[in-house]
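Honest question from a wet-lab person: if I give you the sequences of every part of a complex, can you actually get the arrangement of the whole thing, not just the pieces? Trying it with mine:
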Amino acid sequence: MSERLFYLPLGGAGEIGMNCYVYGYGTPGDERLIVVDLGVTFPDMDGTPGVDLILPDIAWLEARRDKIEGVFITHAHEDHVGAVGHLYHRLRAPIYARAFTANIARRKLEEYGVVDPAAVQTVSPWPETVQAGPFSVSFVPVSHSIPESAGLAIDTAAGRVVHTGDFKIDLTPVVGEAFDRDLWSEVSKDGVRALMCDSTNVFSHHPGRSELSVGPEIERLMTEAQGMVVATTFASNIARLKTLATAAERAGRSVCLLGRAMRRMVEAAVETGLLTDFPRTVTPEDAQDIPRESLMLLVTGSQGERRAASAQLANGKYLGLEMKEGDTFLFSSKTIPGNERGVIRIMNQMSEKGVQVIDDSSGLYHVSGHANRPDLQAMHEVVRPDCLVPMHGEHRHLTEHVRLAEAGGMRGLLAVNGTMVDLSAEPPRVAEFIETGRTYLDGSVQIGALDGVVRDRIRMALNGHVLVTLIIDEDGTPLGEPWCETMGLAEEGQSRTPLVEVLEADLDQFVGRAAKKTLADDGALEKELRTIVRRTSQNEIGKKPEVTVVISRLA
Amino acid sequence: MSERLFYLPLGGAGEIGMNCYVYGYGTPGDERLIVVDLGVTFPDMDGTPGVDLILPDIAWLEARRDKIEGVFITHAHEDHVGAVGHLYHRLRAPIYARAFTANIARRKLEEYGVVDPAAVQTVSPWPETVQAGPFSVSFVPVSHSIPESAGLAIDTAAGRVVHTGDFKIDLTPVVGEAFDRDLWSEVSKDGVRALMCDSTNVFSHHPGRSELSVGPEIERLMTEAQGMVVATTFASNIARLKTLATAAERAGRSVCLLGRAMRRMVEAAVETGLLTDFPRTVTPEDAQDIPRESLMLLVTGSQGERRAASAQLANGKYLGLEMKEGDTFLFSSKTIPGNERGVIRIMNQMSEKGVQVIDDSSGLYHVSGHANRPDLQAMHEVVRPDCLVPMHGEHRHLTEHVRLAEAGGMRGLLAVNGTMVDLSAEPPRVAEFIETGRTYLDGSVQIGALDGVVRDRIRMALNGHVLVTLIIDEDGTPLGEPWCETMGLAEEGQSRTPLVEVLEADLDQFVGRAAKKTLADDGALEKELRTIVRRTSQNEIGKKPEVTVVISRLA
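Yes, you can. This is the full assembly:
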């Protein structure tokens, strides 16, 4: 049996976020592996109430831990690096990244008590290569909305494949490297078997705009604004932070950073030498003494996150600072679909304070970090792969990206999470399907997405919860009456009597008449009591609650 | 004390949806009242899990039931008419509406068993007036995305005020009346004290487009599509239904309606003579025998609602019909902010089936039913009121609309829900603030938004729920050990022992050592047990659950 090269997305191919891709090389079934990115995605009340973070299910990888040669992180966005801390102890493979990304990854490992300096290795970009078993991997700089983003050139005996990571084509990115077409041409000049390519913006038909273009608009806004200006963007968008801070400085405003992520990212960027001329910042305490019209707060929470600085300022005072009538709040960001409600809540709270809220609807104050459709085509042209495999996108993005590739005369191959693609086959083809999924970080525990815990929470939230307790004495007769407690249910319904009383009366009536046999059988009894609660509740309040029955038998 | 005219929004001013406005005329404190619109808004998992519908809190009105002269419904959208059935028995005032709206309102009352033909009275438009106590009210036709929409000219001894209802300026609305500038000029010619004006689209800077403009694009799409076409839009948008059905017919496709609201709306429009030349439709059963390329399904669920026809088709077969590769799904609608997740879910499910999904991002297949900024200005110009009071919008929309009015040289007055405005004062001014809120229809019961029921559901969803039962015998000593059940919590945490066992061990240890006094005091005991559960859970799984304690004392 000859050796093969495969590609296997475990996360990111069929969703935006939670990127995690595997490449394998070797005899089928015994391949050596590398992992590209270990990202997270974020929970929401609709589907994952109470969950803290969503991680890729790495059971498949964990079972092959001894085969993993390394984990390569393309850039420091949470959906690419966010899971390294949470999953490191399950994989224990060395992590490779460029300096800034490595700095962020190390901070995440430290939170989990991992201080081994060899855990994260800093790699210089192309032409430096990391030898990882049969893989030779190079970080190819690419422009994106965070510094030191990189695509990967992955070489094996089966030839070269290229993994773009997230990217845009930006010739003037403010911070970090401009897109270098010559470099990408050089990487691709001897032929590329397959290009695994970012797909998030495939439905954006206009060419992408450069980070540089937002500077003058932001500066004008900061200059014309009368009161205090508060601006929010993703903390990791170092270029934007610089643009905002520089504009503030030119407009005669002191800059104050609010929010842990904001301070952390600026710190990392300074430590790694990426931010050399960031304006001097003032502390929140000092900011209180600065006239409003000479102040700009740079805050976390562009997605309306409830505990972030923006939400705190919308609610009231935060660290002694407060927004007032005549101030301006700028969303220098795009609202990620699904986060609209939180963002709109903040907008309206600001509006109630008399604050002028400016969002991106004008297109002046934000540009995307991802390649739009024409830029994807440009990337296809530069790399000219034998086969295009779209990644990082929902199903509709991947499908559309395949169509785009095929329209350009290229071979396109759709591979959603769990699809193992044999890249060394001629042409590349699906080899098999692996079971994949999501793991929830829930409090301090990792639980499976399908193990029912979150499903039960959703059920309680939708239906309410009734508890029934019944004590049965030594000779099998009920001791007293069944007792009910309700949570999340209306206190009374159609009979204008407390629901709990109606339930207890119905349960008591049943228990009083129940056969000895039923009373002796926990399972049967529990089922009957549950049915009565659900039926009575339906009659009284029109809802069928979740029911927990506790039968205590005196011995 | 002289008489006065007031305006009091109870819903809709500070939100999009749930419209409910009150006008009062008479001696202060003893005014006669009319109500304009009784709408609903829709629950979501974030803030109102398990709730069926959100209604305005009409406690203030209910307490003054004998003063209400009538309820005037401007048009048949759910956010204006949706609460009439649920609230009729609490107000028992006659409902006035134009024929189509009255038809819909009657259907809603019938669902609540109200069959009194006098409950809903059909009113012809301007110049006909309804005399309602001191009010003389006229329905002034206006274009919107549902037939027979009307503004109201409301006359009292204090002069005329105008309430726009929802509107757009459409000269070719396909179904229903075109915007009639001359009519609105006539209504306004003797002076208008105040204009209560729709605000939802105040941030849309381009002039609105006519319903007529989408027809040719939709027809082209229906003609060019290869397989079956499935189109969704709001069922109440009769003009769009007609456009879609007519386009289908011209493209040689039979039309099949799916979804209860869709059939109901078409029925009402036919009954009231608004739809005279709607293409003949086929039943879902007959549709199964029609070749896919000769079929168009017109379905409910444009907002991704889980139980609507669109979601059912995305999941699999629905009434024997199924989407397949090569079919086309058209969202002839806009996604309302907050509904993105549901809509995107459907898009991806369709994509997985190989269905081409077309949404409104191109702007070709949908136009808004509300007046954009330039159209609002046009309305201001036609009516030229002494004062502009923005309604129907979030706080940010109302504020911006005041700014727009003031920029146009008009007086603007911000009045959010609960703000009673004395319109007869010179100039109009805020008279007082009334407590307002929301009522939840929860199953078959109406509950208050702030009574804690839904808050408890959210807490269970976020934190999980632990039940503790403890039996204490006649002499005050625990009988057996405390018993725990968990719902919505991880099965085990850091000690790798089932959480329930760890909890029970800790509780048992406490109970074994507890003082007689504590064991005798239900309150103290419950508090201690709850604290232990929360502390142990925090240690084990990093979460502090909701806890219900049931102490049973044997007598």
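Two things worth pointing out. Chain B touches chain A through 65 residues (CB under 8 Å). Chain B has three domains: 4-206+368-448, 211-362, 464-553.
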